[in-house]
């Protein structure tokens, strides 16, 4: 399944819409006023399904991932030169990608591909295409992509 992750152009807080291949909105992400990033995820019916929240006052950026109200894991940037690395404590997954951070792969513990993520560069806002192997992993992939994108935004500002 393919999903298109597109940041809204005119938004005071981080807001995104995630579309399926037919152009239907699958998830809506609304940024909340908070210390650090706080991104709440809603399904196509407007029901809250999860959240990505930046943990502030840490040496390296860290984002906690919530499914509903339960913390399901975290993503923390590791100290590295040139190529960004992340310590992912979520579903046993890991991320590998390029130096530009625009294209990467999410893999499970057996190095099987969960999703391929690619950034489309000729857009006014951040736009990613997520090619996800299993539909049931869609929310988890969205959460991981949001955390990595939020970390890059924090680093650039």
TrEMBL record:
Family: Belongs to the LOR family.
Lineage: Bacteria, Bacillati, Bacillota, Clostridia, Lachnospirales
Protein name: Tubby C 2 family protein
Lineage top rank: taxon: Bacteria
InterPro entries xrefs: LOR, LOR_sf, Tubby-like_C
Annotated organism of origin: Blautia argi
């Amino acid at each position: 399944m393919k999903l298109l992750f597109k940041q809204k152009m005119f938004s005071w807080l981080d807001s995104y819409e995630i579309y399926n291949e037919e152009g239907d909105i699958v998830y809506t992400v609304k940024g909340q006023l908070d210390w650090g990033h706080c991104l709440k995820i809603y399904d196509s019916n407007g029901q809250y399904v999860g959240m990505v929240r930046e943990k502030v006052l840490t040496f390296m950026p860290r984002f906690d991932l919530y499914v509903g109200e339960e913390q399901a894991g975290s993503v923390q940037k590791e100290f590295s030169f040139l190529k960004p690395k992340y310590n992912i404590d979520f579903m046993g997954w890991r991320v590998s990608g390029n130096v530009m951070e625009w294209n990467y792969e999410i893999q499970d513990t057996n190095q099987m591909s969960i999703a391929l993520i690619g950034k489309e560069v000729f857009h006014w806002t951040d736009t990613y295409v997520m090619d996800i192997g299993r539909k049931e992993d869609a929310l988890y992939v969205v959460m991981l992509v949001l955390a990595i994108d939020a970390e890059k935004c924090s680093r650039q500002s």
